[in-house]
Design brief:
heterodimer; A: 118 residues; mainly alpha; 4 helices; 80% helix; 0% strand; B: 160 residues; 2 domains; 3-stranded antiparallel β-sheet; 5 helices; elongated
Chain lengths: 118, 160
């Protein structure tokens, strides 16, 4: 049973790390602020989410504090999922108000081959 | 009044869980603090359907797992776009009509859209949702309608 939970913890932590890394990669590879926001959204939904759930499983496997720590982890997760879309929305709205023109597929040809993705 | 009791209960539960102390002195401090906080909130008139939406609690239990699954699916979709050898994005701003009737329902819908990677709500005017989508063709499908319908169900048709 302990073995199963340990493996599960590792799987969740690695999956979370994968989404964090992919989100970071997206910040570099995607062409403009709006598309990059989608990559940033990945890191704080699945990236942080899977890591927190992994820690939750680890806590349950450790047999230590069974109330306070899991509850705190779930609270962190809840606050994160409540606040991060608001921050994302504020960024998007500020960019639009500031006159940033969203990147469209028509811009792709202007920048030359691979210009947007290198 | 009922809502004030709910608020008091939630505050005191958080107090107990976060402090971890169950000595009499700390519990009395907690009871006192929560009571003062709720009293002040009631006097300020900020304990209402929006700040303490406990009437959504039952239906939220059905909505949240579905939302988590949607978030997971769209995370995989965006990860695939980012990891493909040549980035192919087709972003555009699209408009949805929200069928929720209350501000709280629209807030939940807008936040749910933003929470799923690949779509970000950039503006809400009345029942019009302005959404930036990373791949336009994937967004006008049934998924947003499904979310819209589910949030409308979550919001419910409560009296008052």
């Amino acid at each position: 049973m302990d073995m199963v939970l340990t493996v599960l913890t590792w799987a969740l932590l690695m999956a979370g790390a994968f989404f964090l890394l992919t989100g970071a990669l997206g910040m570099v590879r995607l062409p403009d602020v709006f598309t990059r926001m989608h990559a940033a959204g990945m890191t704080d939904t699945m990236g942080a989410g899977l890591i927190l759930v992994g820690l939750l499983v680890h806590t349950l496997a450790g047999g230590g504090e069974l109330v306070a720590v899991p509850v705190r982890l779930l609270l962190i997760l809840g606050f994160l999922w409540f606040t991060s879309p608001i921050a994302t929305h504020a960024t998007a709205k500020a960019a639009l108000s500031g006159g940033v023109r969203p990147f469209t597929r028509a811009d792709e040809s202007d920048e030359g081959q691979g210009g947007a993705s290198s | 009044m009922n809502r004030a009791l709910w608020l008091w209960g939630i505050l005191f539960a958080v107090w107990l869980l976060l402090s971890g102390h169950i000595e009499t002195l700390f519990i009395v401090f907690g009871l006192f603090t929560c009571t003062v906080a709720v009293w002040v909130s009631v006097r300020m008139g900020i304990v209402d359907r929006e700040s303490v939406p406990v009437h959504l609690l039952g239906r939220a239990i059905a909505y949240v797992p579905w939302l988590v699954w949607e978030v997971f699916k769209s995370n995989v979709r965006v990860a695939r776009i980012i990891l493909s050898p040549r980035i192919r994005v087709d972003p555009s701003i699209v408009h949805f009509r929200a069928s929720q009737t209350t501000d709280l329902g629209r807030f939940i819908y807008a936040n749910s859209i933003t929470l799923t990677p690949g779509t970000v709500t950039t503006g809400v005017t009345g029942d019009d949702m302005e959404v930036h989508a990373i791949v336009q063709s994937e967004i006008d499908g049934s998924e947003e309608n499904d979310m819209n319908r589910r949030v409308a169900v979550l919001e419910g048709k409560d009296p008052r």
